[in-house]
Every structure is written in C-alpha cells, then in structure tokens.
TrEMBL record, chain A:
It comes from the Bacteria. This is Polar amino acid transport system permease protein. Keywords: Amino-acid transport, Cell membrane, Membrane, Transmembrane, Transmembrane helix, Transport. It is found in: Cell inner membrane; Cell membrane. GO terms for molecular function: transmembrane transporter activity. Residues 19-206 form the ABC transmembrane type-1 domain.
UniProtKB/TrEMBL annotation, chain B:
Keywords: ATP-binding, Nucleotide-binding, Transport. Residues 24-258 form the ABC transporter domain. InterPro entries: AAA+_ATPase, ABC_ATPase_HisP-typ, ABC_transporter-like_ATP-bd, ABC_transporter-like_CS, MetN_ABC_transporter-like, P-loop_NTPase. GO terms for molecular function: ABC-type amino acid transporter activity; ATP binding; ATP hydrolysis activity. Belongs to the ABC transporter superfamily. This is General L-amino acid transport system ATP-binding protein.
C-alpha cells in the first residue's frame, strides 16, 4: 500500500474538523498556563515562608505525567462531586501542567530584570502590585518572549492528549479517518502538516511580539 | 501636602539657613549582613532644609545608611523616624512614607520600557492617583526644572548618562518629596556629564530641599553642604561643617581619607 497523494488531499477537510477544538484548547491552555505560572512565581517570591511550599508545588506539577494529571481530574474528581465537561477538564489540565514550566520561565525572566528597577519603583511609593504590573512584568515579557513562544508550540502539540478524555481534536479526526479506511500514512501525514502550519503561525506571532516589544526600547 | 516645596521654600536666605523641625532622626541604628556589621550604632539627625553630604571609603556603610531611610534596607536595631513616622519592620503604609522621600540611584534606574514622561508620571498616576494630563503637567514642570523638557518623548536608552540622571532626579521630584536621598549620583557618569547633574543638585539645595547625598564630589560638599559626615567601618567617624571638615579634620581616619582624595 503506497502513499496516495490524492487520498491525502481528499481527507484534509475531515481532518480539519478537529482544528477548532485544537485551537480553542491550545489558546485557552496557553493563557491559563501563563496566568497560573505567573501566579505561582509571584507567590514564590512573595515571602520566604511561601517560597518552599510553592517550589514544591511547581516541582510536583512538573514531575508527574500530564496523562496522570488529566486522568486524575477527569476520573477522580467526580467522586468528590466535581463533574466538568471534558473540554474544560482538558484545558484546565494542560494549563495546570504547563503552568509548572512557565513559572520557571517567568522566574528566569524576572531574575533578568535588574534589582534597581524594583527599588526605583518602591522608592517612588508604588505598591508591590503596581510595581509588578507596570515595572517588572513588561520588562520580564521582553526577556521571556522567545521561551514563551516555544512553550506555545509545545502546548499546541500536547492537545492530542485530550483524546484520552474523548475530546475531539485534529489528531483524533485523523485517527477516525484512519480507522475507517485502514490507511494510516495519509491521515497522520495530513495531521502532521496541519500541526506544522499552526506551529509556524504561532512562531510568526511570537516574532511579531518580540519585534513589537523591541520597538518600545531601542537597543543601547 | 499640596503645595510645591519649590514655592514654599524658594528664596531662602543663605545656604547656611536651616529651617526648624527634624526631617530624619537616626538613633543608635545597627545593621548586619549575616555576621558582618554594616552599621554600628549610627546617630544622625537631619533638620528640615539641611543639606548633608556623606562620604567615606567603599564598604563604609554610607549607601546602606541612606537606603535605610526609605527602607530599601531594613535596620535591625535602633530607631529611624522620617517626617515624624517611625519606620519599624512591618510598618504599615510604607509606600506612603516613601512618596515623601525621593531617591536618586547611582545607576539611574529609569524604567527602560517607558519614555521619559511616562517614567515621571507612572507613580503620580498609580500611587498619587492624579489624572494623566495633570500628571503630565507636573512631569513637564520638573523636566523643565532639570533643563531637559525637550527629551520628554525619548526613551532612556536614547539619552546620555547625564541626561538620564537628570530625568531620574525629575522623576523623584514629581512626587514632591520633602527629603531627597542621593546615592552616589555621579559615580556612574562620564566626567564631562558630572557637572550638569551637580548643577541640578545645587539648584535644588538652593531651593531649600532637605538633602542627604552620598557622594565623592568634594567640591559639591564644600559648596553646598551644611554638614559633611565621614563614615568608615559602619560608623560615623567625624562630622563637621565643610570649612572645618576640609581644613581641620580631627580624626586620623578622616585625614587619611581626605589625603587619598587629593592626589
């Protein structure tokens, strides 16, 4: 059975049926993971008693398989009365898992902001929260744009994990075609190409972001 | 605090004139970094309108001392009272106290992602809750005061060191502080830019601002200071008015320090 290019083209629309969910899950998970990751990092820095606790939480998140976390959320929480739609669980699960990694990215990004920046903000009488929002975060964002872009692609590629929760997405659509036709090469190839296209779009967006952030601060 | 310190204190008589009241009281203050004691039982009272220059070799605790005044560093023993409020660990409303105390850093510490005018208005808008156009008016007024209004729309990286430091002074002045702290404001500058910054500081002193300046600019100390403080090993070794301090230092360590500055 050789690779049939005409068949590959023909099944593109069927594989594309899953792209909506793939995008929704990827975008929401990326936003969720960024928000949670930033929150962990701010909590980790807030005081010395919270720091070891948050460090443990972040390490624990990163040290357990994403599938274990997804299964836990989907199959175990209902025992405690928490029943959520599969898509919501999937988005929350991926957000949670990647928040562990993104908090480390934000940590490095904040470490790169010179100490004097926070001191200058404090000496002007800005509150802690205003210092973070208006002084630290914008400078951190410039430092983390590149790794943030890499993780956005990583999260995009992790969306097929949601198959275990029966959330229909792009790789799932491809798999459906495969099991109906007993041809695997073409659906997987098409799905791979489509993921590649999405990743290229994400990379382009990140490049724009980097250039935009660069514009406000000319190089020395 | 609504009036501008420039207006109410402008036109004061001679430089030696000192207004009544205490701006800063530092009493028996000690501080340690681990086992290393950086401040040893320091006592310093700064009257309102007084200009203090603090000098001493590096590692003598002079920067640490003024950083304790706005609690960028916490002291571990003793009392610090600023504008009538004692600063204790966990003092409530520290931001409010800091708004009354301007600070200028050796490395300028301008916000690189904001242009000059936004650097000046950020704290006015967010901490003082001024409307944006009112804040911009205050910012332009103070940028004019440091003679740099034409650079308002530029970013810090587009300015020379001297210009950046003048913006940093303007940014601090925007909060209408009662006290200004200067932490080696000219040490990171190229020689030809030192004068423009010292000129701004001298004018500020002439307007009656209470100032504590850590600096090695002995010409500035001679011309502007009411009192020169010499620190070494975390303690105040000697203090006197500039004439006395430079011509007739009492302590051996002070004489050694001054002789090293001269060559």
């Amino acid at each position: 059975m050789s690779f049939d290019f005409a068949f590959a083209l023909k099944i593109v629309p069927r594989v594309l049926e899953g792209i909506g969910n793939t995008l929704v899950v990827a975008i929401l998970s990326f936003m969720g993971a960024s928000a949670l990751g930033f929150l962990w990092e701010i909590a980790r820095r807030s005081n010395r008693h919270v720091r070891p606790v948050m460090q443990f939480v972040v390490d624990a998140i990163r040290s357990t398989p994403v599938l274990a976390q997804l299964y836990f959320l989907f199959y175990v929480l209902p025992y405690y009365g928490v029943v959520l739609p599969a898509l919501v669980v999937g988005v929350f699960g991926l957000s949670f898992y990647y928040s562990g990694y993104l908090s480390e990215v934000f940590k490095a990004g904040i470490d790169l902001v010179p100490r004097g920046q926070g001191e200058a903000a404090q000496s002007l009488g800005l509150s802690r929260i205003h210092t973070v929002i208006f002084v630290i975060a914008p400078q951190m964002l410039r430092n983390v744009a590149a790794p943030l872009g890499a993780y956005s692609v990583s999260i995009l590629k992790a969306t097929p994990y949601l198959a275990v929760l029966a959330v229909p997405e792009m790789l799932g659509s491809a798999f459906d075609v495969a099991s109906e036709t007993y041809r695997y090469a073409e659906p997987m190839f098409v799905a791979g190409i489509l993921f590649l296209c999405l990743a290229l779009i994400a990379v382009t967006l990140v490049n724009w972001l980097e250039r935009y952030l660069g514009v406000t601060t000319p190089p020395h | 605090m609504t009036s501008n310190p420039t207006d109410e204190q402008a036109g004061m008589g001679s430089i030696q004139t000192v207004r009544g009241g205490t701006a800063v009281s530092i009493e028996n203050v000690s501080k340690w970094y681990g086992n290393f004691q950086v401040l040893r039982d320091v006592n310093l009272h700064v009257a309102t309108g007084e200009r203090i220059v603090v000098c001493g070799p590096s590692g003598s605790g002079k920067s640490t001392l003024i950083r304790c005044v706005n609690q960028l560093e916490k002291h571990q023993r003793g009392r610090i009272v600023v504008n009538g409020t004692e600063l204790r660990p966990g003092t409530k409303g520290l931001p409010a106290i800091r708004r009354e105390v301007g600070m200028v850093f050796q490395q300028f510490n301008l916000f690189p992602h904001l242009n000059v005018i936004d650097n000046c208005t950020l704290a006015l808008v967010r901490a003082r809750k001024l409307a944006r156009n009112a804040a911009e008016a205050v910012a332009m007024e103070n940028l004019t005061r440091v003679r740099i209004p034409e650079q308002a729309k530029k970013f810090p990286a587009q300015l020379s060191g001297g210009q950046q430091q003048r913006v940093a002074i303007a940014r601090a002045l925007c909060m209408k502080p009662k006290i200004m702290l200067f932490d080696e404001p000219t040490s990171a500058l190229d020689p030809e830019m030192i004068k423009e910054v010292l000129d701004v500081m001298t004018r500020l002193a002439d307007e009656g601002m209470t100032m504590i300046c850590v600096t090695h600019e002995m010409g500035f100390a001679r011309e502007v200071a009411d009192r020169v403080i010499f620190m070494d090993g975390g303690e105040i070794v000697e203090q006197a008015n500039p004439a006395e301090f430079f011509s007739n230092p009492v302590q051996v360590r002070t004489r050694q320090f001054l002789s090293q500055l001269l060559h």
